[in-house]
Amino acid sequence: MNNIIFRIIIPANGILENTERIDLPYMGIAESLATIKDEMRYLTIILIILSPFACHQKTDKNDTPTEKFERILGEQETTYLNEIVCDLDNYLASTYPDQESKFKTYLVDISKSRVKEYWKIESNKLKKYGETNLFGKYDTIYPDSVWYGGLSINIKYPDFEFIEEMIPIKRKNGETNIDSMINSLKIEPKYLLIEQSVFYPALDSIQESDSLIINYIDAKEAAGNMSPLILVGGLMYNLNENNEYFAKRIFVMEMYER
Residue 6, SS3? Predict the structure, then answer.
C-alpha cells in the first residue's frame, strides 16, 4: 500500500518556523483524519504548556538591570528599600540645599570626616523593614571565655571549634589596659548570619551591568562588612549619574547590614 504523507506545522516558541513530517499508512480517509485530529490535540497541549515559559524567558531577556534587580528583590522589599532611599534623599535635600550632586557631596564629607553623625533610619521603620527579607536575620552569641595569652587576647565562643585572637593596641602613652579590654570583650555580642538578605543575590544578578556593582561585590566577598570610610571611598570612585540608583541602595544597606 502507498502511504499518504501529511505535513503539519508545529510552532516553536510561538514562531511558525519548524516543521515535522508525519507519515501515515493508508487506512482510509476517516481513519487518517481521526489520527491527524489526535496528533493536533497532543501538539496543542504541548504548546499551551510551553508558551508561558517562552514568554517568561522573553521578559527576563528584555529586563533592564533595574527591573531585573527589583523583580528578584521582591515587591515588598523593593517598596521598603525605595522608602529608605527616599528618606535619605529628604535628608540630603535639607542638608545640602544648594548642591546639585547632593549624594556625592555627602560621600565626600564622610570621606573627609566632616560628618559628625551619619544619617539614620528611624528605629520604628527599621523594625518594620527587619520583618521582611530586605535585611539578613542574625543570631546573637557572647563569648564563654576571654583570656590574655601573653601576646594576644583569646576569645572563645560556645559551639565554635576555633578561637579568635586579638592583638592589643597600645595607647599614645604606651599603656595597654588588658583587664579593661577583656571585660569589654566578654559583653560584646557576635552576630551569626542565619538567613541572608535578598538584596545581595538581587544585586549579584546584575553585577555585570556596571563597574560600581562589580567592584562592590568583589570587596564585599573579600572583606565582609565595610567601615563607612572604606565604603564611601569605593562608591565615589565609580559613582556617576547612571549608577547613582544602585550606589544609594548599596550605601543604605551597607550602613545598616551587620
Answer: strand
Which residues in 158-194 are b (16+ Cβ under 10 Å) and which e?
Answer: eeeeeeeeeeeeeeeeeeeeeeebbeebeeeeeeeee
Domain that holds residue 257: 65-136+196-258
Residues 132, 136: Cα–Cα separation, whole Å = 9
Task: Say if residue 95 is in the same domain as residue 220.
Answer: yes
Choose between 54 and 216: higher pLDDT.
216
Specify the pTM.
0.67
Rounded CA-CA distance 116/125 in Å is 23
Instruction: Domain count for the chain, please give it.
Output: 3
Residue 141 β-bridge partners? 190
Q: Are residues 103 and 69 in the same domain?
A: yes
The DSSP code for 74 is -
